[in-house]
Every structure is written in structure tokens, then in C-alpha cells.
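SAMPLE LOG
Freezer: B-3
Tube label: C17
Construct: single chain, 561 aa
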Amino acid sequence: MIADDYDIVLIGSGFGAAVMAARLSEGLADRGKAPRILVLEKGNDHTGRFDPESDGPDLNAQGNRFRHTLAPEYLADVGQVYTDATGAFREGVSSMNVITGTGMGGGSNAYLGVSLRTATEVFDLQRDGRPLWPRGTSRQALNPYYAQAETRLNVNRQAWTDATAPHHQLTAKRDLVFADACRTIGATAAPLKLANANDANDGWWAQGQRHQGRQNLTENYLADALAAGVEFRANNEVETVVPDGDRYVVRGLDRRGDDPEIFEFSATLVIVAAGTVASAGILLRSEDAFSGQRALDQGREVRNVPVLGRNMSGNGDYGVTGIVGPDLERVIDGHKGKPMSSFCPSFWPSDQFILIPFYAAPLYLSQGQPSTLLRPFQPDAVGRGSTTTAVVDGRPERDWGLAYKQRLQQFSSRMLTMGCLALDESEGEVLLGPGGASFEVRWQDTHPQTEARWSTAVDTMRRIYEALGGEMYLDSYRKDGTVSTAHPLGSVRMSDDPEYGIVDELGESWTNRNLFVVDGSIVPSALGVNPTLTIAAVAERIADRLLRGSGTEALVDRLGL
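STRUCTURE (predicted):
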């Protein structure tokens, strides 16, 4: 048993945790305070700098442990897939898959650097006549914190072509093809803003980029926290957080040595920031320890309508893959350059979705993430489970054999993958697996409004492929009913009302002083853009207000410093 006392313990090291660790440690140091702050990460330290006691492969020439490989055992070290073990929509098939990053840096190990601010109108969304977002959290309120995050993450706008621009600021060839197709259907494409200063343009972002450029959190916020004296433990998976008077006990398993060892840390203030799925899961697993007036879920207590683990958004993610025609003049070279660097915002005003072309490795596609490489029986079908695999020579088209091999051979030259991000209705759910040992996700029913947005987006993407003389392949939603996302949000919603959210606008539990949640799980709706910048901006705002004591008890008073 490892026992120790800390002022602050943070669970996780992704965008919420990294910002909080850096800003709180620096802010307290500026005030002449030196609290003990600990960050617990269940995955590995891919840099070897944050936890020297964490074992791992030898560092490569770039000074990290990332590799350019699709080997499953390696991918499991930088990412994790949460899924539905029961098949809520169709027996034997997952209703939802959530892809997350893992290891020191959390989601930044697998994200593609897209850094867009959320549209103003998203913060005005309502459900059943109630605002989804706390009234004090708006685009205007977040703008200065967006700016801070953009600066620290080295965000810059890409360019189509510019002889004076550095290589890392130029879009990829696939983006020029995508822009041509958008013009053909009467839409417009634009370069994205990416956190990729001095990027080596070697791709592999989703697998952990070994070369410099993509702004992994270990290169900015976490590095700042380390310099400010924050302690880090990798391969330390938290199982529960339980109250102990006016303090908390964080328990879990330390897997750094040959024999796993139980740890137990006491803290004055705990920040749960393990990601949308894991944060909800840890709190669900800990829920029985919070009883009476300290019950975490006041929705369940007062209205008999659970809030914890519910209302999870997939951020409207919907991915498809297809091919362009053989006569297309432009070469795609989809495997080269940045995985994402342009988007189409034309359909946001009318249908609340954007389109982004991106590179996805053939291995992911052949496994059904985010789509198959098979042709649909009904190319223009939309809706969950709406069509099946096309029939070729009297039998369903196969994802193996000579024809499939030839299709894979064309992946670099003719394949084009794209997807939408939309305003879904937060139909997802986080659950505990058998015995509470694991976390699962489920998407039982799709709301008609989400279905309408996806149907319009899928039809639009099909038109783009046809404008390029090609065709769109069958995706996992139309085939199996599986919702796949890399951008989960919600599940521990912030709200102005404790009956409709687990935490307030500063991420603090309504019923437990000094218990915070600060990550994507508190974002109360879909964002319609890649969420990392918004998560970071929300965390910047929370840290700033805690340090200043703006509208809340100041951090120094909370810690008794």
C-alpha cells in the first residue's frame, strides 16, 4: 500500500488535467505558495521525462517512445477503444465505439491537432426549454481563454499554397481535391487551424508522432507543470475517489513494477480529468461512497432521472471512405502530410455540421473504424442499419481476397476519407461493465434531429465522391448501426441546476466541496468542431477563476495555504 498526502491530486493528463496542472501550479508559485500536486496517468510515459520510474521501450532518436507502426500491441499503448459489450441496437454488434488517447498527454497522443473555436450559437442550445450551458459560459466569456490556449498550443492557420509559408503551414494534396469537389457542389472549403508549429509533415499523428511539430501536451502544458514542481506517476490507474471528512482518498493500482501495487493518496482537492468515459466511470464506481447530502447525482436523488454517465455526445462524428475516379487529374496521396488540414463550413448555418477530409490507415478501415471498404447495396441509403453489403457475382462483396487486395493497393492514390462533426442530441451513455471492473458505452437510439443531420451530411459526402467521378463505400452506421467517435463529450455535465448537471460552471461537484471534474465530460453538448481547444479554454477559465477567487472560494483558502 502506497500512502501519501497531497494538496491537489489530478486524475488524468489530457487537455483538462494538463491545463489545470500547469496553471494552478504556476499561479500558486506566483503567490509564493508551494503545494504538493500529483498527476496520476493510467498509461505510459511516452517521453520518459515525467516519471522516470515508469518502464518502457528505449527512447528513439527523437527522444520519445512513439513508433511509426500499426502493430496492434503498439496501438493499444497510445489509444483505447471503449465499446458496447451487449449490442444495444443489434445483437452481437456494438452500438457505439469511443476511441480515446492514453498515456502521458492523454488525448493529445492520438489527436490530429485541429483547433477551432466553437460557434457562438452552440452556447445558446436548449433542451426541453432549459439552457444546456451554464449562463456564465459563453463564446464571449471563453474568447480570452481560447486565445491563451491557442498561444500555448502554437495554433496556426494552414494555407492552400504560399511560396513564403513554411512547409508545416501548407495543406495536403487531399485538401486540394476536396476543395475542387466542394466547389463543384456549390460549397466552399477552407484551411484549418492546427496546433502544429514546425511540424515535420510525416503524418502518423493518430499513432503518436515521433518527430516534432504536433503539439502533444508533454511539449507545452505538462512541461510547464513539471517545471513548476508537479509530481507525475504513469501506469497508475485510479479506481475510486471516496470522501474522507473534508478530504478525499484516491485509490487505484500502480502497475509500474513487476508486481502491481495498490496505492492510496489523500488530498484536499481532487480534479477528475480522465476523459469523458473514464471520468464518468470512476465516479459511477465511487458513487456509493457519496451518500445522503453528498450524493453525486442530484438528478437521480430529486427527480429520479439519472444524470451521471448519461447524455454523452459523440460530437456528431460520422466517418465515411470512398474512392475518386481514375480520370481525376489531381493525385491524392492521402497517406502523405497532415492527417487533417482543411474543412467545409458551408453547411453549418443550415444543417449544423461541418465536413473534414482526413487520412485514416487501411487497418482502421478494414476493422470498420470508421467505415468499411465495401460497396453498399443501396449507395444513396441513409439511416441506422439502412443497407447491407453489395452483392457481387451472386454473393456479398468480401473484405478479403484479390479484389479487396487491389482496393487496398489503390489506397494512397485514389482513396479519400472524410467525415462530419455535427450537433447530435447526446444520445450516448457510460456504464460500468460486469463487477464494475471496466467501462462501457452505449448508443441505444438515435434522435430524429441527429438522424436528419447525419442523413444530410452523408448525402452531401456521397455527392462529393460522385463529383470526383468516384463512389462512397459502406459505413458502419448504415451497415451495423454502430456510432463511432473520437470526440466524446458530456456524461458529467456542468449546469446551472444541480438536478440537471453533476458539476457547476467551474467543474465543482454541487454537493462535494473541492471535488472537481475538468475535461470533456463536463461539456454539456456537442460542439460541432474538434473539441480539444474548447476543453482547454474551459480549463483555462476554471483555473483562472480559482486562482483569483472570482465567483468562488479562492484556491489558497481551499488549500489552507
